[in-house]
Amino acid sequence: MSATNAKNYELLIKQAHALTADEDDWIANIANVSALLYHSLENVNFAGVYRFENNELILGPFQGMPACVHIQMGKGVCGTAAASQKTQVVENVHNFDGHIACDSNSNSEIVVPIFTEDGNLWGVLDIDSTKIGTFDETDQVYLEKLVKEFHM
Q1: What are the tens digits of pLDDT across the range 70-116?
Q2: Any bridge partners for residue 48, and if so which?
Q3: Cross-strand bridge partners of residue 125
Q4: Can you give the pTM of this predicted structure?
Q5: Cα torsion at 150, 96, 80, 8 (round to 10°)?
Q6: What is the topology classification, in CATH, of domain 6-150?
Q7: Measured between alpha carbons, how far is 68 from 111 in angstroms, rounded to an integer?
Q8: What pLDDT, on a 0 to 100 scale, did the predictor assign at position 6?
């Protein structure tokens, strides 16, 4: 069950919009939204993005412990979300075949693909939690709405 309900997500999306609406710089926008998510969602130990470049994912702005810099397409939860271009909600990362453990304290994860305005893959939003089963369909629905605030 999601620790964040729909009403809280609606507020987060409004806050994300306020932070990004008048700013064109993607680094500034993602840095601010990553900080917003990291400090607003419960039990989160990583919130940030990996951008798709040179056929791999490369670490972008984030909040949390140091993270893996390069992730190959199709590898781990982030690479799987990027390759399939579909959100991945993982109840227990230790049961995910090929999980990449950047932080040993991570136990569940949600990764949402980010697309450009013309529909091409730009990267992924990655959020990790210290608790098993943190993320669910509510998180997926609202985080998919939220990534549209990045204006890629």
Answers
A1: 999 999 999 999 999 999 999 988 887 766 767 677 889 999 999 99
A2: 62, 126
A3: 49, 112
A4: 0.92
A5: -20
A6: Beta-Lactamase (3.30.450)
A7: 15
A8: 83
Residue 66 backbone dihedrals phi, psi, to 5 degrees? -50, 145
The single-letter code of the amino acid at 24 is: D
Residue boundaries of the structural domains of the chain: 6-150
Instruction: Give residue for tokens 């230790």.
Output: 94
In whole angstroms, give the CA distance from residue 126 to residue 104: 15
Amino acid at 40: S
Residue 50 one-letter amino acid: Y
Q: In what order do the strands lie in the sheet with 70-72?
A: 70-72, 56-64, 44-53, 121-129, 108-115, 88-90
Alpha-carbon distance 34 to 92, whole Å? 22
The residue whose two tokens read 């620790």 is 3
Question: E strand or H helix at 109, and its extent?
Answer: strand 108-115
CA distance 20 to 56: 26
Q: What is the DSSP letter of 96?
A: S
Q: Tokens 């917003």 correspond to what residue?
A: 36
Token pair belonging to 97: 């075949």
If you search the block for the tokens 């994300």, which residue do you land on? 16
Place of tokens 């709405």: 145
> Over the stretch 106-117, which tens digit does the pLDDT of each residue have?
889 999 999 998
